[in-house]
């Protein structure tokens, strides 16, 4: 499977714990995006990388959230001191900047439940 | 403020019937509009992408239309199948930006 993969698919954690999610983009894609999606809503943009550079962060990305893409390939999203409001689906997408329509391909998501 | 609004919020139809989903947007400058299908618990999958100059685009039983003057788009599903049950999300990319603006989606249920 050469699509976008995310790990884990599901995560249940207690409030106050730290969690880390991983995203592996399509190999030739230089752009990587993180989104958050709550039930009944469309995805909301969190941040995006071009290669290893984090070029934009949403105001939704509080200081408890940090994302990295150290070698311009896979990316991690860490949430520190989780809160119940962090419960959501976290989606990763990737694209190729040479694609004129900049099609984004989404991974299956990581479902986070904070108890 | 850049926004994408979809209607209806949810829809139930019988297998074999047609349906049309609506999308209105206030995004400027407009770059392109996409329709995604999202199965429950999965990531969105692209159905169509349309630029300013494209009025209609088809993908099998899915046909999307775009009226850039009125800033409206529709997704028409023909001869629905049970596997069409999903959320359909309208997404607009603003020119010059790398982030997409998502609608809340229309939840479609196809019943036998």
Quick overview of this protein structure:
Chain A is mostly beta strands and 115 residues long.
3D structure, described in words:
- The complex is a heterodimer of chains A (115) and B (112).
- Chain A is mainly beta and 115 residues long.
- Chain A has no helices and eleven strands.
- In chain A, a hairpin with a 2-residue loop joins strand 5 (44-50) and strand 6 (53-57).
- The mean pLDDT of chain A is 92.
- The termini of chain B are far apart.
- The mean pLDDT of chain B is 93.
- The chains are: A mainly beta (115), B mainly beta (112).
- Chains A and B meet through strand 5, strand 9 and strand 10 of A and strand 5 and strand 9 of B.
Key words describing this protein structure:
heterodimer; A: 115 residues; mainly beta; seven-stranded mixed sheet; 11 strands; B: 112 residues; six-stranded mixed sheet; five-stranded antiparallel sheet; globular
State the total count of DSSP E strands of chain B: 11
The percent range for helix content of chain B is under 10%
- Classify the beta-strand content of chain A into a percent band: over 45%
Count of helical stretches of chain B: 0
Distance between the termini of chain A: 33 Å
* Helical segment count of chain A: 0
Shape of chain B: globular
Instruction: List the quaternary state of the chains.
Output: heterodimer
């Amino acid at each position: 499977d050469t699509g976008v993969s995310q790990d884990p698919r599901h995560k249940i954690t207690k409030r106050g714990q730290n969690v880390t999610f991983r995203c592996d983009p399509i190999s030739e894609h230089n752009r990587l995006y993180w989104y958050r999606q709550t039930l009944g809503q469309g995805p909301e943009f969190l941040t995006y990388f071009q290669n290893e550079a984090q070029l934009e962060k949403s105001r939704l990305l509080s200081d408890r959230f940090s994302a990295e893409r150290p070698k311009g390939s896979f990316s991690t999203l860490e949430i520190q001191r989780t809160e119940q409001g962090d419960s959501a689906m976290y989606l990763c997408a990737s694209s190729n900047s040479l694609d004129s329509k900049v099609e984004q391909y989404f991974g299956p998501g990581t479902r986070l439940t904070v108890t | 403020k850049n926004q994408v609004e979809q209607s209806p919020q949810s829809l139930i139809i019988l297998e074999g019937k047609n349906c049309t989903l609506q999308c209105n947007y206030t995004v400027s400058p407009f770059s392109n509009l996409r329709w995604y299908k999202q199965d429950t618990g999965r990531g969105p999958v692209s159905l169509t992408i349309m630029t300013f100059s494209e009025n209609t685009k088809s993908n099998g039983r899915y046909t999307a239309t775009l009226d850039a003057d009125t800033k409206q788009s529709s997704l028409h599903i023909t001869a629905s199948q049970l596997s069409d049950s999903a959320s359909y999300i309208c997404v607009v990319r603003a020119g010059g930006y790398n982030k997409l603006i998502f609608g809340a989606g229309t939840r479609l249920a196809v019943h036998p």
